[in-house]
Every structure is written in C-alpha cells, then in structure tokens.
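queue> holo job accepted (adenosine monophosphate)
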Amino acid sequence: MSFESLGLGPALLRALAEQGYAEPTPIQAAAIPVVLEGGDLLAAAQTGTGKTAAFSLPLLHRLSQTAPAGTRRPRALVLTPTRELAAQVHDNLRDYGKHLRISSTTIFGGVSMGPQMQALRRGVDIVIATPGRLIDHMQQRSIDLSGIDVLVLDEADRMLDMGFLPALKRILAALPKQRQTLLFSATFAPPIKALALQFMHQPREVSVTPPNTVATTVTHHVHPVDAANKRDLLLHVLSQDSRRQTLVFSRTKHGADKLVRYLEAAGLRAAAIHGNKSQNARTRALSDFKSGRITVLVATDIAARGIDIDQLPIVINFDLPMVAEDYVHRIGRTGRAGADGMAVSLVSHEESGLLRDIRKLLKQDIAISNVPGFEPSHPLRTDAAAPRPVQGQRQPRQGRPQGSHRPHGHHGGGHGQGGDRPAEGNRKRQRRRRPAAKA
Ligand code: AMP
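queue> job finished
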C-alpha cells in the first residue's frame, strides 16, 4: 500500500517523502479514504500509530481541492484537550502541508490573545484549538466558526469527558450543521461513543487495534516498593543509564515539582511539565527534553498529552494513575512507531487496587519483581479488596528510608508525593459537571 494509491495529491506525497514516511500506517490506510470521501469517522487507534497524519493528510488534501470561500473564515477546526497536543498537531500540519498554500494557527490559553487575534484577522484555513481559549475568542467575536467544513476531535475521549463537555457543546452549537466530523481517540468507552454519535452523521468506524491495548513492543515491569522509598528507587532506576531520556509520570502537579527538586538535588537534569506551569515553561521543558538538555521530564497525565518524542525508550510511573485508561495513554509515549519501549511502574501497597485495574484493562499479566534493597514491607495485593489511594487523603510521607542514599543538598522532609491534589485529568474527571476547563 502506498500513499499515492490512497489518492493524496503530489504536494502531500512530496512532503511525506521528505518526512521519510515510506508507507501509510494501518490507521492511515483505513482512515484516509473515508475522510477523502467526505464522510464522518470514528477512529480508534492507540497513540503512536500515526493517527495525527491519518486526519491531517486527507484534511489538507480536501482543503487544497476546494477553493476558499473568499472570506477569511477558517474552514477546519481541530480541537485538542491540551496545548501541547495542539502545538504538536500544528507542527505536523505544517510539515505535511509545506508544499501547499494552506494556513493554520493555534489557539490556546497561557499565552496572550493578541497574536492569535491578528492571525485570525489575517485569515487562516485551519484552526487548532483547546476549548477554553476558543470560547474566549468566540465571546470576543474574534473568530467566526460559520465557515467550518471539517471538525476534528483529537483525543476525543478526553474532549467528551473531564469537564470539557459544556465547552464542547457551546462550540458545536456555533458550527454549521452541515459538516464533516472526525473523532480520533486511543480509547472509546461506550458512553463516550454514545455521546459522540449525537453530533455525528452516520459515521464510519475504523479501529486498527483492539480497544485499550498498548503497543506490543512495550515491556511492562512493576517494582513493588514502600511509598516512602519510591524516590530512592526512582534514582536507582534512573542511575542504570544516566544518559537515557526518561519520562516520569506523577499523579499530582505538586508531586511532580517536588520530584524534580529531589532529582536535581541528586545531580540529574530534570524539569516538570503540568497544568500549573506557564505555557512558556511547558514549551521550554519539552524542547529541553527533546534536545537532550534535560534527561528526565516529570509530567502529570494531562500535560503529557501530545508529547511526541521519537524512540522514547522508557516511561516510569512514579505513581500509578487513578484511572486505568491513563496507563494506556502514558505508555503510548514509548514503543512508538514500532520501536521497543519499556514501562516501569513503582507501585506501593496502597496502589494495589490501581494495578489490579490496569491488569484487567490490558488483559495481560505484568511481571512483578522486587528490586534488591527496596523490597516493600507490605506486599502488593491482587484480591478484589486491594486498596486504592483515596484522593485528598494524605498518604505516607516520603521520608528517608533506612540506609538510603539521600542526595546531596536535599533539605527537609515532607516530600510526600501522595495526598496532594490529584493532577488535572483525574480531578476533572471526578467532577464532570463542572464548567469547561481551560487546557
Ligand atoms: P501519532 O500517532 O500521530 O502521535 O504519530 C506517532 C509518530 O509516528 C509520529 O512521530 C509521526 O511522525 C510518525 N508517523 C506517522 N505516520 C507515519 C508513517 N506513515 N511512517 C512513519 N512514521 C509515521
């Protein structure tokens, strides 16, 4: 199968050759013809399968075939749950569309509205937006959505959940009824799908992997450890290859910051990326990580959306996510595009129930092995009553474990990773009825 046989034009084929893409990935082969035909699409594909190109390529092709209406109204809208993902999609659209005259811009919070307004005033074909800031522009009347022919919801499961729904409904109400709607997501829970069908028109469904599976090239390891010893075990795992780029997940924003301070005190180059950081800080952390200036990036679940790093060899779950589906999303950052990847989870007794949920979702056993010197005082439980951390309740502090190699320059205790407010994704999901959150 070639990109040419899918019906994409020469300018796109040239850009794809420059990108080094030899042939379409399975989701691209399945989705591109449907999108080119103009129909609605529900596409389930795990992260890292090439789903961004699966909608970007046919979108660019269609826009290049139809002349702009002569107005400056955008013709396509891509909605994403996070700023990082919006920036990533924008980069991809620019790469694929470099030989076409199709303009695009991002609209997201955390940066000033002025340049966004100017870009909209000049006129763009494609807007890639997060819902909160898009609504700000709608209120300011700086964007006119009446010319949108194609709507794409990326990471659609997130867009239809976690507090985004009211915002999404407002945006949908401002779009023309007659349009093409494309939903792309790694996971599609039945209620999410039912919701999606309410604003789609006889969508075709394509799915290239069974729901909620992770790339088969990823190996999973669980190391049981007492909560108090997690940071030292993390240092131990990181020290096995200090040059390796490692993405570490923390359940809480506060916990991510504390962890970065701890790692820095131990001499590692680390940065945190989460929703409380300014957009500049988030962009800088990501580019420093990509360029190798820092080797450890500590992220919360939602901030990690859109992080696309070639060949990321290892992802470490410092905390397990409260929602098992997030494990799939986290692990999607490694083993991309066929490369080998490793997922290491540091799991305390209190998280036994979360591990149980993840194993159930993945439908696969995950190897559990103790790391010598870090054996937990309470073993993990696998029975139905296995404990889960209670949100909002303090967990054991990350005290200094006996005989641990505490890094130089590290002051004071109270580095509890547990008990902080849950990271944005989980919190919002718990309060679904809250007004729209800005990404
Ligand atoms: P995505 O699932 O959109 O996040 O894409 C994952 C990675 O696969 C990105 O780094 C893309 O650049 C890359 N990619 C997308 N399509 C292809 C392709 N047809 N051949 C090789 N790499 C691809």
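queue> Residues 21, 24-25, 28, 47-53, 308, 336-337 surround adenosine monophosphate (CB under 6 Å).
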